Amino acid sequence: MQVEAFTAPGRFYRGNLHTHSTRSDGKLTPEEVCKRYRERGYDFICLSDHFMEHYDYPIVDTTDYRTDRFTTILGAECHAPATERGEKWHILAVGLPLDFPPNRDGETGAQLAQRCLDAGAFVAIPHPEWYGLTAGDAASIPGAHAVEVYNHTSQVLNGRGGGSYYLDDILNTGRRIGALACDDAHWVVEADRNRDAFGGWVMVKAEANEPQALVDALKQGRYYSSQGPLIENVVVDGDFVEIACSPAFQVSLVGRASKNEKISGLGTTSARLPWRKFEGDWCRLVVIDEAGKIAWSNPIYF
Question: Which DSSP letter does residue 241 get?
Fold first, then answer.
């Protein structure tokens, strides 16, 4: 069995798909946001300012900030009423056109998410723990490609940055959906400079560091997410999943309920884990380093 993110042609590009600027509620200009990610060695970002009437529905044109080694994807964090707990929906749409139309009168979150999908976007469910999304909320936007398994700003500012439980709950319904890590940087603590940035990212396997190639790869699940560790290879060989990674403390396959297989030990760079207990279902790889930083694969379906 092939694991698409590691067998697809191309190379891995590092990027952040969720961040904000002065075009909505961020504290830095779009140019400065792009500059900071570029200087930190990122290959791409999506500037996803809040697509709301209050901010004049921005799809920020970041094409002027691209270089021969750094690119940008156009997108936005879209909003519409209402989650099951009465909150305004947050829908991350990566790869929207500049002329994406504003919200329609009475448009629901489900309708807005579908309009983003129809426009060609990679659509994700952001920060589910931060605002208490329910299983019914996920079911209402069945076309979403991914869940934020980690949102850095929600974690450092509120201690609510997780999404693993929500992701697994969706997977347990039989739905196939990916695992995304993002910053959601607003640059809110400038004295601390980068406190809510550079904490979670995606590694996307694509043939070129170009917006459409990256969006296509995201839609095909050709990526993994990380706070630090590298996942270098994943291969299903017979009854085992073989994993290569940067030095880790623990390498685990986790699945439905408490199902797991793992190996522990400082400096672990490879693992050979049996997968038969996940047969007919799903599992996903979790790599944790000595500092407690995590990398997440997309689910593997058996």
Answer: E
Q: What is the mean pLDDT of residues 243-250?
A: 98
Phi/psi of residue 161, nearest 5 degrees? -95, 0
* Residue environment code for 120-141, b if the CB has 16+ CB neighbours within 10 A, otherwise e: bbbbbbbbbbbbebeeebbebb
How much helix, strand and coil, in percent to the nearest 5, is found in the chain? 20, 35, 45
Cβ-contact 269, 247 below 8 angstroms = yes
Q: What are the DSSP calls for 219-237, one per residue?
A: HTT-EEEESS--EEEEEEE
Q: Three-state DSSP class for 244?
A: strand
3-state secondary structure 72-113: EEEEEEEEECCCCCCCCEEEEEECCCCCCCCCCCCCCHHHHH
| Sign of the dihedral through C-alpha 147, 65, 100, 188 | positive
Q: Are 170 and 147 in contact (CB under 8 A)?
A: yes
> What is the Cα 211 distance to its own chain's centre?
16
Let me know: does 253 contact 277? Beta carbons within 8 Å.
no
Given this model, what pLDDT does residue 4 score? 84
By the 10 Å C-beta count (0-12 exposed, 13-18 middle, 19+ buried), 149 is classed as buried
Tell me the two tokens of residue 271. Answer: 């693992």
Q: Which of 12, 14, 1 is nearest to 242 (CA)?
A: 1
Residue 206, exposed/middle/buried by CB under 10 A (0-12, 13-18, 19+)? buried
Strand pairing report for 146-151 and 178-182: parallel
- Over residues 133-181, the pLDDT tens digits come to 999 999 999 999 999 999 999 999 999 999 999 999 999 999 999 999 9
User: The tokens of 24 are what?
Assistant: 């909505």
Q: Is 181 left (phi over 0), alpha (psi -120 to 50) or beta?
A: beta
For residue 267, what is the DSSP state?
E
